[in-house]
């Protein structure tokens, strides 16, 4: 109810003083003062009629006519500055006449002169302040000099002392009310403007924060783009150059059968490595450019491990690495089939790559009531403390395996992203010189 009353009051004053979107603060304040002055004049007229001040009543009625005119010019014709000037002229003319008709300095006219000056200084153009103060001083001083030298020009008009003091008290109260109304109006306007300025400042700060966040996001995208170009221009070109070199040797027919067989084996290794690199690159680029669609369904975990181990067993055998796994045949996890395949392939491939000849890579699975924990443990070279902090980020650098196998530093980042998409997790433990163990957790299928 209070909000409706406040809204209704605001609408009422906007109709009287003008729409804030169309009128300036000074123009609306002038209109406000005109309305308040008109109301206060009605009170003065009522008091003057009550105490039989016929002349004063007539003067007040005459003052309402120019007041109505300047209000019309300001509110409906938007001629604000002319309205202020006309108000000053009519006010000083009528108040000067009233000074002689209403007991001079013994009456309430001096109060009204002061109120008029406050009004002109408050709402008038600051360039005219000196004019209004000078005019006010000259007029009031002249009237007092005339009264002092020619007291007969100012006859007493009050029927008794009580009427005079009542008129003085009412005029003083009206003057105070006028000053309070205009001061309160201007202060309220200032507070509203200050609040709007604060809101705009907060909006600008928020907008700047959004722009900063967008710039940060763009910077991240640029880093990813540069990383992608680096992989394409260097890491992918390196194995292709090796394959081309081997093919050129074979095409020259200068190799014996043993050398050809060794090159063919090396070509197979390079081709598999390049295939893995391309698959990682294409999978990661797809997620960055087109987003990710995740299909979480129950899958047999042993089938995944057997497939990945089968694909990597020949590479492990060439390095003399023993590749083993131990998984319950009926164990099912909730996962995305393609994503989990890529994660396991990268973890096993890294374990073989960074394990010396004659080492071991073991894949094991343990469970709790609701999750499966798969580990890929190797007896390789481990991960240095400097590399561990950036292992799952784009900051990680390309690395070489124990047989100079090239790593692009992208596989583990993709593994981390893919595990997050599957409501899983990935972490590691590593001791430089002794090996590493990577862990993956996924929710178990509920039966």
What does this structure look like?
This protein has helices spanning 2-17, 25-50, 54-75, 80-101, 109-123, 129-149, 161-235, 237-251, 257-290, 301-318, 337-353, 385-388, 411-421, and strands spanning 297-300, 322-326, 332-335, 360-367, 371-378, 425-431, 435-443. By secondary structure, the chain is an alpha+beta fold. A hairpin with a 3-residue loop joins strand 4 (360-367) and strand 5 (371-378). Helix 5 (109-123) packs antiparallel against helix 6 (129-149), helix 5 (109-123) packs parallel to helix 7 and helix 8 (237-251) packs antiparallel against helix 9. It is rod-shaped, with a radius of gyration of 46 Å.
Structural class: alpha+beta
Average residue pLDDT: 78
N-end to C-end Cα span: 58 Å
Count every beta strand, where a strand is a DSSP E run of 2 or more residues: 7
Main sheet attributes: strand count, strand direction, barrel closure:
5 strands, mixed
Strand content: 5-15%
Residue runs with pLDDT of under 50 for 5 or more positions = none
Largest sheet, spatial ordering of strands? 2-4-5-7-6
Number of domains: 3
Apparent shape: rod-shaped
**Fraction of residues in helix:** 55-70%
Treating each run of at least 4 consecutive H or I residues as one helix, how many helices?
13
- Element order, helices and strands? HHHHHHHHHEHEEHEEHHEE
Radius of gyration: 46 Å
């Amino acid at each position: 109810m209070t909000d409706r009353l406040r809204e209704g009051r605001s609408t009422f004053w906007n109709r009287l003083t003008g729409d804030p979107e169309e009128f300036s603060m000074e123009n609306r304040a002038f209109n406000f003062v005109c309305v308040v002055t008109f109301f206060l004049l009605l009170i003065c007229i009522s008091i003057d009629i009550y105490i039989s001040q016929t002349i004063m009543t007539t003067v007040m009625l005459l003052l309402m006519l120019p007041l109505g005119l300047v209000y019309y010019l300001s509110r409906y014709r938007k001629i604000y500055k002319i309205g202020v000037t006309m108000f000053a002229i009519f006010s000083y003319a009528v108040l000067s006449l009233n000074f002689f008709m209403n007991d001079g300095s013994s009456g309430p006219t001096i109060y009204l002169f002061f109120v008029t000056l406050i009004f002109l200084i408050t709402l008038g153009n600051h360039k005219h302040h000196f004019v209004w103060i000078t005019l006010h001083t000259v007029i009031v001083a002249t009237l007092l000099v005339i009264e002092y030298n020619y007291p007969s020009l100012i006859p007493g008009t009050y029927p008794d002392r009580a009427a005079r003091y009542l008129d003085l008290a009412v005029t003083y109260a009206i003057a105070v009310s006028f000053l309070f109304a205009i001061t309160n109006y201007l202060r309220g306007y200032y507070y509203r403007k200050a609040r709007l300025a604060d809101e705009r400042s907060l909006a600008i700060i928020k907008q700047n924060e959004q722009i900063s966040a967008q710039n940060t996001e763009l910077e991240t995208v640029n880093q990813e783009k540069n990383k992608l170009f680096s992989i394409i221009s260097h890491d992918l070109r390196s194995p292709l150059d090796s394959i081309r070199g081997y093919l050129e040797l074979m095409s020259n027919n200068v190799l014996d059968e043993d050398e050809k067989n060794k090159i063919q084996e090396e070509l197979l290794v390079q081709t598999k490595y390049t295939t893995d690199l391309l698959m990682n690159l294409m999978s990661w680029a797809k997620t960055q450019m087109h987003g990710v669609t995740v299909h979480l369904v129950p899958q047999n975990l042993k089938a995944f491990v057997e497939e990945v181990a089968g694909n990597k067993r020949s590479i492990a055998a060439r390095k003399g690495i023993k590749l083993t796994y131990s998984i319950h045949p009926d164990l099912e996890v909730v996962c995305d089939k393609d994503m989990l395949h890529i994660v396991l392939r990268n973890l096993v491939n890294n374990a073989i790559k960074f394990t010396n000849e004659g080492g071991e890579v073991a894949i094991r699975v343990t469970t709790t009531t609701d999750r499966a924990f798969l580990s890929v443990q190797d007896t390789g070279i481990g991960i240095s403390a400097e590399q561990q902090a950036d292992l799952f980020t784009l900051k990680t650098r390309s690395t070489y395996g124990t047989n100079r196998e090239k790593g692009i530093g992208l596989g583990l980042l993709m593994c981390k992203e893919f595990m997050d998409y599957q409501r899983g997790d990935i972490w590691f433990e590593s001791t430089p010189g002794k090996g590493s163990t990577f862990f993956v957790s996924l929710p178990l299928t509920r039966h």
